[in-house]
């Protein structure tokens, strides 16, 4: 593995999974997937910043077909959703949010990251990387 000609690099600890291929996992931050990236037993020769996600999104499915991603106010969105199982909701009333039409019966895979998940990620990272002297970045969409 080569080392880029830069002063520092950023380990981006989010979107490690393809959201369309992992329906039962939170694709924004999956700790088991993150851990698989940390199993390297060598010290990286450059300053390493850490980027962690602090956002949520809703993947929209109409007639079981993926339609796109919606970035919306959580309270506004959850008012029209009924949870079916972990991560999965159905739309309970027709509505428009951010110019996106949601129909009754549409399926929503709603993924979010809370403070506990960030804390767990930091604990995991500390087992593999000395992050006390590193810059911790939070990524928000």
Rg over CA atoms, rounded to whole Å, is: 18 Å
Shape type:
elongated
Number of strands: 10
Number of domains: 2
Mean pLDDT equals: 89
Number of helices: 3
Can you walk me through this structure?
By secondary structure, this protein is an alpha+beta fold. The chain folds into 2 domains: 1-55 and 114-141, no CATH class; 56-112, no CATH class. The protein has helices spanning 31-37, 74-78, 115-128; strands at 8-12, 47-53, 56-62, 65-70, 81-85, 88-91, 95-97, 100-102, 107-112, 136-139. The strands form 3 sheets. The chain has a 5-stranded antiparallel β-sheet with strand order 4-3-9-6-5. Strands 1-2-10 form a 3-stranded parallel β-sheet, with no helix packed on it. Strands 7-8 form a two-stranded antiparallel ribbon. A hairpin with a 2-residue loop joins strand 5 and strand 6. It is elongated.
How is this fold's topology laid out?
Blueprint: E1 8-12, H1 31-37, E2 47-53, E3 56-62, E4 65-70, H2 74-78, E5 81-85, E6 88-91, E7 95-97, E8 100-102, E9 107-112, H3 115-128, E10 136-139
Parallel strand pairs: 1-2, 2-10
Antiparallel strand pairs: 3-4, 3-9, 5-6, 6-9, 7-8
């Amino acid at each position: 593995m080569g080392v880029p000609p830069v002063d520092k690099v950023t380990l981006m600890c989010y979107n490690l999974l393809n959201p369309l291929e992992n329906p039962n996992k939170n694709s924004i931050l999956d700790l088991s997937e993150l851990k698989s990236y940390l199993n390297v037993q060598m010290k990286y020769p450059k300053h390493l910043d850490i980027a962690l996600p602090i956002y949520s999104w809703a993947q929209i499915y109409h007639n079981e077909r993926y339609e796109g991603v919606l970035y919306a106010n959580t309270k506004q969105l959850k008012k029209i959703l009924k949870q079916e199982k972990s991560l999965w909701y159905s739309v309970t009333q027709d509505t428009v949010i951010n110019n996106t039409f949601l129909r009754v019966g549409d399926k929503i895979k709603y993924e979010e990251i809370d403070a506990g998940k960030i804390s767990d990620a930091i604990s995991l990272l500390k087992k593999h990387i000395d992050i006390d002297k590193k810059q911790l970045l939070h990524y928000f969409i």
